[in-house]
Design brief:
Length: 293
């Protein structure tokens, strides 16, 4: 019986089509999407199929991604900015077979630094229906953009068009030993008063995760950098998903009190009265008989 079942399973398996899982490709591998990378060499040994995805990973604000046609690819001509992808973690699902062209639209990145990719997508199983949109991943902000964390930069202008949320990160990039980073309160920010040196960040690549909503103040603690050169940043962090409220404990069931003590006084009284009546009745009966006699 077991051998028959095994044969049946083998026959069924022979008729089942091969199932191929979609592949996720991180464009450029460890280097990501940036300038001066040979993306055609990266793509050379890969087979792209319908249903696969391309992930363009880069520092937000430093690059972008445009899907273009062959002519725009060759001339490095980007479409209108509204058509670009700019999240820093752009995911593209390859929905149809054929040639696909992608470029970075930042000036000179495509033309002078070869930040462009062309691939051929092979036909395959139809692309799966899009999954429900996942929550937006946390954003990494490089404070000051290309200028980094230094003197004489208008950090409030840099932060003006950005929305900071709980879970996002700030990266303070600077030459180690030339600057530092202190988190301060509003008074320390306004007066450029740095806390004790032991509270400062000094690595040159300081990463701060925004864990709570509200105002956040940061300054450089080097003498005159904050007061004379405006090396300071204040942001407002928006709240993330509120933590679930603690469950309200249910009301305890009332504890039954001791059962009331049974009062047998009435019963005792009844027994005593009955016995008295019998006794009196007997006496009356005897007296009546004696009287008659």
């Amino acid at each position: 019986m077991a051998s028959k079942n095994l044969c049946l399973m083998i026959m069924i398996a022979g008729f089942l089509p091969a199932i191929t899982m979609a592949t996720e490709y991180w464009v450029g591998g460890d280097k990501g999407w940036t300038i001066d990378v040979d993306y055609q060499a990266w793509a050379k040994d890969k087979t792209f199929k319908v249903g696969d995805t391309l992930v363009f990973k880069y520092t937000k604000g430093h690059h972008n991604v445009f899907k273009v046609n062959q002519t725009a690819f060759q001339s490095c001509t980007a479409p209108p900015p509204s058509e670009g992808l700019t999240t820093g973690h752009d995911v593209i699902t390859l929905a149809k077979p054929g040639k696909k062209w992608y470029i970075c639209g930042v000036p000179t990145h495509c033309s002078d630094h070869n930040q462009k990719l062309v691939i051929t997508v092979e036909d395959g199983a139809p692309a799966p229906a899009p999954a429900p949109a996942a929550p937006a991943p946390p954003t990494e902000y490089w404070v000051g953009g290309d200028k980094g964390w230094t003197i004489d930069v208008d950090y409030q202008a840099w932060a003006k068009d950005k929305t900071f949320k709980v879970g996002d990160t700030l990266v303070f990039k600077y030459t180690k030993g030339h600057h530092n980073v202190f988190k301060v309160n509003q008074t320390g920010f306004q007066n450029c008063i740095a806390p004790p040196p032991s509270e400062g960040l000094t690595t040159g690549h300081d990463v701060i995760t925004l864990a709570k909503p509200g105002k956040k103040w940061y300054i450089c603690g080097f003498p005159t950098h904050c007061s004379d050169h405006n090396q300071k940043l204040v942001i407002t962090v928006e709240g993330g998903t509120p933590a679930p409220a603690a469950p309200v404990p249910g009301l305890a069931a009332p504890v039954p009190g001791p059962a009331p003590k049974k009062d047998d006084s009435n019963n005792s009284c009844k027994v005593t009265t009955s016995a008295y009546k019998i006794f009196v009745g007997g006496v009356v009966l005897i007296w009546t008989i004696l009287t008659l006699v």
